[in-house]
Amino acid sequence: MKRTVIRELLDNPSFGQTVCVKGWVRTRRGSKQVAFVALNDGSTINNIQIVIDLGNFDEEMLKDITTGACLRVEGRLVESQGQGQSAEIQAKEVKIYGKADPSVYPLQKKGHSLEFLREIAYLRPRTNTFGAVFRLRHHLAFAIHDYFNKKGFYYFHTPIITGSDAEGAGQMFHVTALDPDNLPKTDEGKVDYAQDFFGRHTNLTVSGQLEGELGAMALGGIYTFGPTFRAENSNTPRHLAEFWMIEPEVAFYDINDNMDMAEEFLKYVISYALEHGKDDIDFLAKMYDNELVTRLKFILDSKFIRLTYTEGVEILEKSGRKFEFPVYWGADLQSEHERYLVEEHFKCPVIMTDYPKEIKSFYMKQNEDGKTVRGMDVLFPKIGEIIGGSEREADYDKLLRRINELNMSLDSLWWYLDTRRFGTAPHAGFGLGFERLVLFVTGMTNIRDVIPFPRTPKNAEF
Ligand code: 4AD
Ligand code: MG
Question: For the whole model, what pTM was predicted?
Fold first, then answer.
């Protein structure tokens, strides 16, 4: 008999019919005569209750129906008498696919701490919390593709192995096929990457932007959605060494178009999650954060405040607040500063623009003042920076001058500069850190809890 997924059964119960479900036991309770098994197959946060009349089944088999075991159940779907569920299955046939010995299976009925669950990240998707988080992660990913597709942008695949440092921040993981115990050397005693797999030095990408710009200069509007890697040793609740980034890049957009798009995009994907992930959001709100739904709806209803870095720094200086990191014009703003502006001063998401050029990447469009660049960060409550982007420097000479000022290597950037030689155009784009979005939408507080297998300093288990 064909399996029905539990979500469908609960959404559209055809009472009286015989059905087949397959899933993992969450809990088992009952008496000498009857067992009530809560079965979950991951399709929804909700379990289906299986009622097993013990007298009709083999005693040995019944012993193995314990938390974590995987079952196939055939039985009659009936309206439930019990509270908290609408439908239940009166079991006619039960088959155990896989046992889970209760003396060793780590996920028992009692609640576990998020820290403990991180240590068993290979099993945590089977908990209510992580099931909810990962289903929401899926809905958000789908909404992102949906948004750009509706806008007529093309999904453009940028390489994961690159020869350049897109952000110029030097936080790269090297990629090599050379034997670290026996490295070929040049006459000057440096590693001879000419003998490496690609015949040059390569690394894992920190951003798809530079190649994304090449796409925008041909297809008009593109977006990337892929993994990016940063070897920055920041052990914070908002940083991962491997994270997913969404980077739209659009020809003929200026910074204002870019800000409009960022705001519309965030509202679209959040409202999609509220609509399609309601059960999971409600569960997470109940368990972890009762302000969650209000906060998400607030984003949809608010007009993001736009202000310049210079204005932002003035507000921070006048706030009279003692920050851990001092604020002055030229300082790179820390999450405490961003959150002060968003959560306490404006009480609203903020898009900050026109940063000092020294604290931003080489590719940002230079302003007339010679001091600032046309960058923009979107700052969110609880999160701080969720998006970073800019209008790009489209002028060949200005871009080349900046690359030289920063002593960046032209060897790995000549092709990027060429876009400014051949049919250059004003353009802009941004990068959304996917996990920061998932953090915001799930109300989780540690970025390690919104990606199935987090990569952070000293941690690459599973
Ligand atoms: O601000 P970032 O470094 O900007 C870029 O990479 C640009 N190339 C984007 C563009 O204009 N196309 O990173 C963009 C976003 C940040 O706002 C943040 O949300 C996220 O990526 N991010 C991280 N998320 C998790 N862990 C990290 N270590 C992150 N670093 C950045
Ligand atoms: Mg940034």
Answer: 0.97
